[in-house]
Amino acid sequence: MIYLISALSAGLAGGLVVAVIPENRARLRNFCVLFFSVSAMILSWKVASLVFAGIKIHAAGKIGDISWSLAPDPLGAVFGLIASTLWLFAAVYSIGYMSGKKKQRTYFSFFLISLSITLGVAFSGNMVALYLFYELLTFVTYPLVIHERSPEAVKAGSKYIIYNLSGAGAILIAIIITYSLSGNLDFSGVGTPPILAGCMGSGLNWLLLLYVAGFGVKAAIMPLHRWLPEAMVAPTPVSALLHAVAVVYSGVYGVIRVIYSIFGHDLVKQLQLGSILPWVAAFTILTGVIIATRQDVLKRRLAYHTISQLSYILLGAFTLQPWGLTGAVLHMISYSMLKVILFFCAGIISEQTGETRVSNMGGVGWSLPKTLTAFAIASMGMIGMLPLSTFWSKYYLMRGSADGGIWPLALVFVISGIINALCFIPTVVTAFKERKTAPSRETGSKSAFMLVPTLILAFIAVFIGLWPGSVWPGIQAVINRFF
Amino acid sequence: MLYIILPVIPFIGALFLFIKKDRPKNVSLIVSALILILSGIGLKNIFEGNPFPLKIPLAGPFSPAFQIDHLSAVFIVLAGLLWLVVSLYAPEYMKKEGGIWDFQLPALLTLSAVLGVFAAGSLFTMLLFFELMTVTSYFWVVHRWDKEAIKAGYFYLFFSIIGGLLIALGIMLMSASVDVLPAIGSGRVIPNDPHKFALSILLLVAGFGIKAGMVPLHIWLPHAHSAAPTPGSALLSGLLIKVGAYGLIRTGEFAGWGIKAVSETSWLGPVLAVLGTLTMLAGVTAALLQSNGKRLLAYHSVSQMGYIILGLGIGLYLGPEGGLGLLGAIYHIVNHALFKTVLFLGVGVIYLHTKETDLYRLGGLLRHFPVTALLMFIAVLGITGAPGLNGYASKTMLHHAVSQAAETGASWAVWLERLFVLVGVGTAASFSKLYYLIFLSKPLKKEVTGKESFRQKLSLGILAVIMVVIGLQPGLLPNTALIPAAEELGMKSSAATFAHFSFWNPGDVISMFITLALGILVCWAGLKSGAFHWQPYSWLTLEGLAKAFGRLIYAVVRKTARICRSIFSAAGNAGNAAGSRLFGIISRFDRSRSGKFGGIILSGISADAALLIIVLIALIIWYTLINPDFPGIKLSSFLSIWIKK
């Protein structure tokens, strides 16, 4: 329990410490950022290893009549691991990216506080805690979205707040209904049934819809996705970490929780909505990536692509099959790394050459060869080619769809893979058109801070792709927990 | 064990090359020689009956597995030989073309990947190396990085990626249809779910068929093979498309070689045979109309792959009696690799000294390049199937297999036999054209720089000698290597079938000569009448059709997107209007505050208003729930009509 609490509070403490360090003490601040990121990562690894070992960690309390609890289970532990590990990479990258920019103090303190909140979402043990952290996440990331303070950024920030709070409202109503039905909001442990097990009636469809619509805002299911491309005005590390991984994953995580811990896959199987949801996800997958191919600004392209890829995970969860959930959890792990690489590369390109539009990127590859190599590796993964870890998640997602008796859904992954190729391959290739030797722009400490985490992540992605067994125990634990 | 390290050797070579950028010449030569020697040693073991299964024990879903049986050994030796020849040839060529390092590094990596595919023991391992091969060989295609090369590269990459995805889907469906995913070389699979199994076979055929240039999935091939620098084209045509054929043979193994076709996969043989014939026809027709030498050769790769696919199809169709089909197909793989490499390298020699690949602008080069002319003549005779050379051997076997199929009475098989002869005439015609226009016709191009060098002559000569040896001793290769391979694949009767077969039937020899004569006649007629200059209308070509189809899809998508967008924007406008109306009503309650908050102008106060309303509603509902005495509606009883516990 001490690990749990300290893992949760490391980021918050770091944020507060950074907030009191004067703006001009860059070196000290960078040290603090790294120190607290590393300690949060180590602590959450510790928590996760305890969880995977089957040791129960629990912290609970009451606010008035409402009881909250923190009790990480394997799914939460996987999410916490992804978030805290990638946070460290993003922290290193941020140091490079933000160097020489203004308002670093605000940036880094909210950056670290967001880590705590995200881990809170991951480690929450009942709906109350999940809801509180989920709401808080919107608020602590808002300053990061409007970091530039330009009119555009402020507008995007408003959109961000409105969308996410409306979603949270829907969730709150759904939680109240759930409580009135069962009188219990704790996520079940091993062997105990899900919260709503034994309920029946067509109203459950609407309850599930409320939940999915609520969490679906952050998970960017298609009609509710509009805030995500707008939020790309944020600094690139924020886009990379929060709007491709942490924030959106909290939505995805919520949906998986609702389906497997609140309703249970047996109950969802009986609902009509349960057979519609996979198709909603499939629609989002295809539409998202098709829109992405039409975007010229690289970050917006990546944002629409995020929308598409998040629905991969959702589709895996909606298949209600063990293999489908395997694919979903594996995709959470592998996709997050690759997407962070893509965003990091986009950031390096825009920082080092000033280009943000794909159509202007002709020939940048010759001055940024390592960056574009990392980009190419990540885009191969997005297509689903083998030495990358996303192949395996895609494979199991397809397997889940086939097992669920809806194998045409497996075709969706193939088609979306092809469109992914159309989306990213030309970007890489045009970056290398017109053979020329240009002076390298990958020198200097700023560049090194940005490039090193990118390359390490690319290496890890290939490693997991060649040895998917290295993350298998965690996934197995999740599957055993729900099936 | 020795064999397993084969894919590692080129990889180490590539690493060395990556570090020492300035000495690219000899690394690949040394590596490929090493591969050839090692595979020669290993071959002995394999033919003594010691295959090397190896599984790297990794926990989790994927553990790389390797196995080498007779079939793999044949392919590995072939790869080693071709790479050796090309690395002899390449340094000189690439020095003039530019970018020798950019060629050699992908070449070594591709060798590693290709060996990996042949040595793979599980479908996942095979797919891994297959995808790596796609990526590394892509750098040959885009070597020049100009507009045309990039376009060809897109063709190559996209088709290969689609192939890889289809294979992945196929593997997935296969694993869903059986208990344990079958290893490569484990023979026939008996599925629990025949429907899914048949589907997975179809997907694997499509995936490998893309690599093999099977109609209608071949349209990437001529672009890619003619855009690459010539040594790259030689390897692409000589070996890389054979990887597709290798995949098809392995796919056939899952369906079962040498057994009477079972119902769920009985379609496979006829479909492959018909597709193979169509591939032959499409390739040869397009080749006749080409004026660019490399493109002509590339279309001929399509056509010759058709022979191979046809042989595989007949082998599957005839079941236990299909020995000649399978043997002929594997034999033709070896033969085609040999003569197509010579032809490409020969055209490369011409290009290097004249900077010209347009056949109509060449001519009379016989006296400039006598040795190349001789060696290419041997290769031309080989590919057209002249008796006494290697092409004759495999084509005769395939012809006998087709006749055998036609004797079963299936009407499609009868038609295949007729078309088979027709394609032979077309091949002879197009190669008479190639050879005549380059070496024999009136000299048009004046300046010819330099002479053919020793390395060039040597590299072409090695292959030509092998071709002649095979041609004069056609039974040697089948008896030593191909029949054991076919028997291991499950075609138990292939030795018996082969014993009854004779290469030197007078009928076959005479018909081959007639084919050649007809081909030369067609060539003469075509050149005289100018028919070879005719360019088909775009709607007649597959590429044109695909383009039109693509445009149609694009138009539909755009129309749909536009409609969707207008619907969404209408909905959005309505929502906006409603929202601002609501905002107007709300703001009437609070005139005193403008939209400013802490210096930031929120676009309306909608955010905190919305929050306030939501929180209020939530609180009201909350109270109704936890305070049962609260006067008002009780939500729980209201809900119970709807959801029952």
Principal-axes shape call of chain B? globular
Overall pLDDT level of chain B: 84
How many angstroms does the end-to-end distance of chain A come to? 27 Å
Tally the beta strands of chain B. 4
- The amount of beta strand of chain A, in percent, is under 5%
Secondary-structure element sequence of chain B? HHEEHHHHHHHHHHHHHHHHHHEEHH
- SS strand fraction of chain B: under 5%
Q: Quaternary status of these chains?
A: heterodimer
Specify which chain pair forms the largest interface: A-B, 66 and 60 residues
Can you walk me through this structure?
The complex is a heterodimer of chains A (483) and B (645). Chain A contains 18 helices and two strands. Chain A is mostly helical and 483 residues long. Chain A has a domain of 153 residues. Chain A has a two-stranded antiparallel sheet with strand order 1-2. In chain A, helix 3 runs parallel beside helix 13 and helix 11 packs parallel to helix 16. The two termini of chain A are 27 Å apart. By secondary structure, chain B is mostly helical. Chain B has three domains: 534 residues, no CATH class; 57 residues; 39 residues, no CATH class. Chain B has 22 helices and four strands. In chain B, the strands form two sheets. Chain B has a two-stranded antiparallel ribbon. In chain B, strands 3-4 form a two-stranded antiparallel ribbon. In chain B, strand 3 and strand 4 form a beta hairpin. In chain B, helix 10 packs antiparallel against helix 11. Chain B starts with 7 loop residues before the first helix and ends in a 6-residue tail after the last helix. About 3% of the residues of chain B have low confidence. Classes of the chains: A mainly alpha (483), B mainly alpha (645). Chains A and B meet through helix 6, helix 7, helix 15 and helix 16 of A and helix 5, helix 6, strand 4, helix 21 and helix 22 of B.
